[in-house]
Amino acid sequence: MPLTRDEDIKALLEGARTIALVGASDRPDRPSYGVMKRLQDHGYRVIPVNPQITGEHVHGEFVFRELAQLGDPIDIVDIFRRPQAAGEAVDEAIRIGAKAVWMQLGVVNDEAAARAEAAGLKVVMDRCPAIEIPRLGVAAVA
């Protein structure tokens, strides 16, 4: 069952340090661009993943093609993809041993969520961490 209780979501955010952002954009008009910056400003290390802009930099971070290229342990994989495409990102998150997957506002994929939970990952769907952090009073990452 995806996390829905405020205290569970807050605990997930407070325990995270590194977030991989799948579907990151280098375009300032895209929601993922602003969310990445807000997460960085809160103290998280945010690693952008997008095969269309691999090798470029967004907010000072190198953009990777896929999650499998990341060498660092990932606490949360934040997914900015259409619901039907989110399953692929969830499967990659499982393969790399991420601790949680977070599907953005409007992204609901129950089958992918069930696979993630069966693999031991925490799941959040249809929410945005940039909204939840101030709403829940999550302290800045030190």
TrEMBL record:
It comes from the Bacteria. Signal peptide: none annotated. InterPro entries: CoA-bd, NAD(P)-bd_dom_sf. Residues 12-107 form the CoA-binding domain. It holds the Pfam family CoA_binding_2. PANTHER family: COA-BINDING DOMAIN-CONTAINING PROTEIN (PTHR33303:SF2), CYTOPLASMIC PROTEIN-RELATED (PTHR33303). This is CoA-binding protein. It comes from Sphingomonas floccifaciens.
